[in-house]
Automatic annotation (TrEMBL):
Start and end residues of each N-acetyltransferase domain: 19-189
SUPFAM superfamilies per the UniProt record, alphabetical: Acyl-CoA N-acyltransferases (Nat)
Organism: Actinomadura nitritigenes
PROSITE patterns assigned to the protein according to its UniProt record, in alphabetical order: GNAT
Name this protein carries in UniProt: GNAT family N-acetyltransferase
InterPro entries on file: Acyl_CoA_acyltransferase, GNAT_dom
Length: 191
């Protein structure tokens, strides 16, 4: 498959206190957001590929079942899933770091659910759950900072959504990457 060089911009964003969160309005479409409390490599891999397949999310594609399970089983890692009428619409993954830092390592919607206000609502819930993560985990220090990174490869509305929810850019990096001509899609051969 042909490859191409692409300049990729990464925006690193953060909130330094829960008062910085600016919740989005609840969308008109009924959305239920719940934590997947049991580590499920199958679910997480599905969400990762379904959300990230069109945006070159490839870092975890080669992970084995055990690698997924080890990642998800770490204390404090949480997966929050948005459902519309019982169908997964998107997700957020929270990854606790030392010293009260929580990273939102994965966030996004399946393509069929964009443009309906679901992303802002899901991000509002995910950020709030990052801020109160210590209330659900023994021996976890209170959250002092919530961070995330978005890329020029991500959905065009991603950066705007993060900033509208109160996240501020604290660093920008630009690098050149080599990518297949088209993103991998949600499963091999889907394109």
């Amino acid at each position: 498959m042909p490859t191409r060089q692409i300049e990729v911009t990464d925006w690193h964003l953060e909130q330094l206190g829960p008062a910085e969160l600016r919740p989005a309005r609840v969308p008109d479409v009924p959305v239920a957001i719940a934590r997947a409390e049991l580590p499920s490599p199958e679910l997480s891999r599905y969400l990762y590929t379904a959300v990230g397949g069109d945006h070159y999310w490839t870092d975890r594609l080669a992970w084995t079942y055990d690698q997924w399970l080890n990642w998800l089983s770490r204390p404090g890692v949480e997966t929050w899933v948005a459902h519309v009428r019982g169908t997964p619409a998107g997700y957020a993954e929270l990854d606790p770091q030392p010293d009260g830092l929580v990273e939102i390592t994965c966030f996004g919607l399946l393509p069929a659910f964009t443009g309906q206000g679901i992303g802002g609502h899901l991000l509002s819930v995910a950020a709030a759950r990052a801020w109160d993560l210590a209330t659900r985990w023994d021996d976890r220090k209170p959250t002092r900072r919530v961070r995330l990174t978005t890329s020029s490869n991500d959905h065009p509305a991603a950066l705007k959504n993060y900033q509208a929810r109160g996240f501020r850019v604290y660093d920008v990096t630009v690098a050149t990457g080599t990518f297949d001509h088209t993103p991998p899609g949600p499963w091999p051969g889907a394109r």
